[in-house]
Amino acid sequence: MHRDCGVRTQFNKLRYMLMKLRTALAVVSLFLSLAISADHKSNECAGCWIAPVGASTVEQSLGVNIHFTDPRPGEVQMIADAGFHWVRMDFKWEVTERVRGKYDFSDYDHLLKELDAFKIRALLILDYGNPLYTEGKSVRTPVAREAFVKWAVAAAKHFAGRGVVWEVFNEPNIAMFWPPQPNVDEYKTLAGEIGHAFHASVPNEQLIGPATSSIDFRFLESCFKSKLLEDWSSVSVHPYRQTSPETAASEYARLREMIRTYSAGASQSQPSVISSEWGYSSAWSRMNEETQAVMLSRTFLTNVANGIPISIWYDWRDDGNDPKDPEDHFGLVHNLYRSGQTPAYEPKPAYFAAKTFVNVLGGYRFQERLNIGSSDDYVLVFIRNGERRFVAWTTSTLTRRVVVQNMSGQYSVVAATGESLGAITPTNGALNVELTSTPKYLTWHQ
User: 363, 383, 408: which is the final residue of a domain?
Assistant: First the structure.
């Protein structure tokens, strides 16, 4: 009993010493962070947040995922009004080849006609299995591969010259879409045969892949080792996460370096990285419709500022109404179609966030990320004909204040979903900006 008391006393002393040590370390950490802020240094990763050479204006990169070929009246109008220039859609094998060797692309003829009316381009996914040849969604046997390749080439010929981007499958690195288990060798064989056939028959059509679930470096590198980069104009990935979108920047940089390594000596230009599917569900834990809108803004900002030429948001409309099912709530608009009403679907805040992004930054190109001292704080600069616009936010949960130097004139402040937040004016060339986790846009006027 007394021995236990002695042990407890020693333990309390040790705990006290550890508390003092933690306090000391916290003070040192605070000092260092202030020193970093004063020196305007950052530990940001190499290759992140750098303006790409020859990038298009930001609105040209934005797209949305859909699940239909027959849009409801007013639906494509809403997609266009939000500023989207791309639509991504499954181009399903089993739907377009119901009799062996006979193809019916009429549903997609209708879809592309609707998209063409609003100058929206299509990114079509060559997927999945077909019960005429396969037992499930994966394409694994020589007979199935041969039929799949013939069908894919027939589709590309049918829509040749329409600006379609063809994606080789969807998320083949997970069992849901490549049952019974993902097999990179099976996928590479299929993708390689498609690539060779496209080069021979439709060399001017764009082919991308492999549309991995997450940025699956092991799967991707295996594809690169098999020289699939020679067939793809871009590498497509799905950078899903429930953490901050900005965490994808370092993964993009790593992926680009990997592509650079395996493209060395190639005659064609190095493939870009495309985010062909990425979204946040408003029904995820700690998420709601307002925070989904914040994540959309930050996702698009992260992609545009890291050289991603196409960013497809998942999803266009909610799949259902079950409040407990996250899969029902990735959309930018609610599920119910409102016949005879304008707009045809009730927008969620994320829809207005997309629209604001384009309204403010349309026609602009990303120029740089200002180094304002902390890697948590973001001030991005966009430029058009010498005029600069700024977007500012922080990944911190705390409100921050930063100072942007060498500023003049007055700046209107616009919220992520379009509301006016007044105006701010620099003092002696220094603009004080309050940062929260929600991006705000700063537009200059005299």
Answer: 363
